[in-house]
Amino acid sequence: MSTNVDTMNRLSFSMPYRAKWWLMFGLMAAPLAWLIGSALTGGLGANPIEAINRFLGDWALRILLVTLAVTPLKLMFGLTWPVRMRRMLGLWAFAYVALHITNYVAIDQFFDWGDIWRDILKRKFITAGFVAFLIISALAATSWNGAIKRMGVQAWKRLHKLVYWAGVLGCLHYIWMVKADLREPLIHIAILAVLLGVRVYHNLRVYYA
Amino acid sequence: MLIKIPKSWQLSESDATPENIYKERRRFMKGTAAVITGGIAGSLLGRDAFAAWVRGEKLPNVVQSQYTTDEELTPYDDVTQYNNFYEFGTNKGDPYDNALDFKTKPWTVEIAGEVNNPGIYDVEDLLRPHQMEHRIYRHRCVETWSMVVPWVGVTLADIIKRLEPTSRAKYIAFETLHDPKQMPGQNRNVLQWPYVEGLRMDEAMNPLTLLATGVYGEVMPPQNGAPIRLIIPWKYGFKGIKSIVKITFTEKEPPTSWNVSAPREYGFYANVNPEVSHPRWSQAKERRIGSFFKQPTLMFNGYGEDVAHLYSGMDLAKYF
Ligand code: HEM
Predict the structure, then answer these.
(1) Backbone angles phi, psi at B242, to 5 degrees
(2) Residue A190: phi, psi to the nearest 5?
(3) Is the ipTM of this complex over 0.85?
(4) A200 class by beta-carbon count within 10 Å (0-12 exposed, 13-18 middle, 19+ buried)
């Protein structure tokens, strides 16, 4: 473990925290900037609405997984700077989820609430996405410092543990949606499994230590 | 967001569209290089260097069909760059990217099963005796998008009559080429290869059913299923099997690829039906490529007058 930490610290950017924060912020914003640029220049192909929906869904899940990587990075390599910017990462995941769903409601279904509600109840891939959305929204709504004080640290922590379920449901949403080619959702599931596995391994070690 | 507005298009024979060649510079350059190097290498190796598809080759002796529509055509670039053809990859842009060098000449089709004239036919010999027609059909994908496409092809029924199926032929089965070297998507078992499809004989004999070999008056590009593919406009797009190498007349209902892959989701019939949902999405509406709003999907994709009688008395929720 200690050699790991040494290497990581040597490899870790010798950059002030503020610069790292802005770098990560920029990285999270980049896909959205690309999407807007492509939409304005007609670069989204024959079915832009489908392209937008998929692009936003993909990045929502990817950034959720990035957020879920924060704790494993600390446990395995002792990196602490990602922990400090976890809120920013989580809020970006929420932003992509919110845009993905806005696109579905406002453009794909054009506010046809009857159809939307039927989708949520009848289609299990949408049901899973909807529950993940509720979780991520609750976490975003309680992401400010005041919320921790009001709720109490224990209750707040318990609530925010639900992020794991958001990850699981996001992956289920993806694999249940796919027609035949499971490769991409399986890659996401494998990454999620590793991230959760690191935590389980760590907890067991602490428990039996 | 930018919504593409389709340009109008006329069916006149003089309407060659070389400007598109310049627009597709990358592909044009690649094509030119292939022709030049292929010509040299081909003359050394004795291989047909011109087997790959080239944009802009008009199909001769095509007549206008009675089967048409005045709906706005989906632009050529969308028809040829937004495709489900898993043999070339599972993303919609993959076929356009990966099928450029697909060899469609020479091409043979094996005719087998319950038929008096079995054998291996060159595709040109199979098509030549029959009248080629321009037909504008609505095309509805099971994924809820749709297009309006000007195909060129011959009526399947004409070919079937010439091949003389026996009285035992109740169904007709089709098979796509299996060649992972040319079709990179076949290196992964996303579906069982080769892709297979089938029709009941009366569906195959319906005058709407087309064996297509061109789009927009031109030789069909490989990503659309060259050199011949099936078009059954009242069924979901996946019934329209592409790059056909074998046609078998059978007594029993033949297996079909998507049904084998997910029997709860895709049936043998796959008739367009707004009332029968796919288990994971509704089929009541569709988005026409190029349109912002969805529009209602029509029973049998609007071809009920010509085909509804084929299914009278059948429970279409059961035989979906
Ligand atoms: C009410 C909530 C949600 C709804 C209604 C919804 C809707 C959809 C729909 C309709 C698709 C299919 C797109 C298509 O077939 O082209 C889709 C795909 C997807 N969604 Fe969602 N979604 C929701 C929540 C989420 C959440 C919370 C996440 C991530 C954490 C997510 C990630 C994805 C991903 C990764 C895809 C696949 C994109 C691809 O094919 O590349 N969705 N979603």
Answers:
(1) -110, 160
(2) -65, -45
(3) no
(4) exposed
Cβ-defined contact of B294 to A110 (cutoff 8 Å): yes
Inter-chain CB proximity B262 and A39 less than 8 Å: no
* C-beta of A130 in contact with ligand 1 (< 6 A): yes
Per-residue pLDDT tens over the stretch B2-23: 444 433 343 333 344 444 443 4
Handedness of CA B124, B126, B132, B137 (dihedral sign): negative
On whether the pTM is more than 0.90, the answer is: no
User: Residue A8: is its pLDDT beyond 70?
Assistant: no
- What is B96-125 written as a DSSP string? HHH-TT-B-SS-EEEEEESBSS-EEEEHHH
The Cα B2–Cα A196 span in angstroms is 41
Chain B residues with CB inside 8 Å of A176's CB? 280
* Strand blocks (E) in chain A: none
Q: Does ligand 1 have an atom closer than 6 angstroms to the CB of A101?
A: yes
* Burial of B26 (C-beta count, 10 Å sphere; 0-12/13-18/19+): exposed
For B250, the enclosing helix (H) or strand (E) is strand B244-250
Instruction: Quote the CA–CA distance of B310 and B300 in Å, as a whole number.
Output: 11
Task: Flag whether residue B278 sits within 8 Å of chain A, measured between CB atoms.
Answer: no
**CB within 8 Å of B149: residues ≥ 6 apart:** B73, B74, B79, B136, B137, B139, B215
CB of A59 within 6 A of ligand 1: the answer is no
Pick from A40, A48, A181: CB nearest B190: A181
A114-125, pLDDT tens digit by residue?
889 988 988 999
Where do the domains of chain B lie, and which CATH numbers do they carry?
13-311 (3.90.420.10)
In terms of Cα–Cα distance, which of B268, B241, B261 is closest to B109? B241
What gap in Å lies between CA B23 and CA A46, rounded to an integer? 16
| Placement of tokens 């912002």 in the chain | B292
* Residue A175 near chain B (CB below 8 Å): no
Beta strands in A75-198 (DSSP E): none
The verdict on a CB contact (< 8 Å) between A46 and B1 is: no
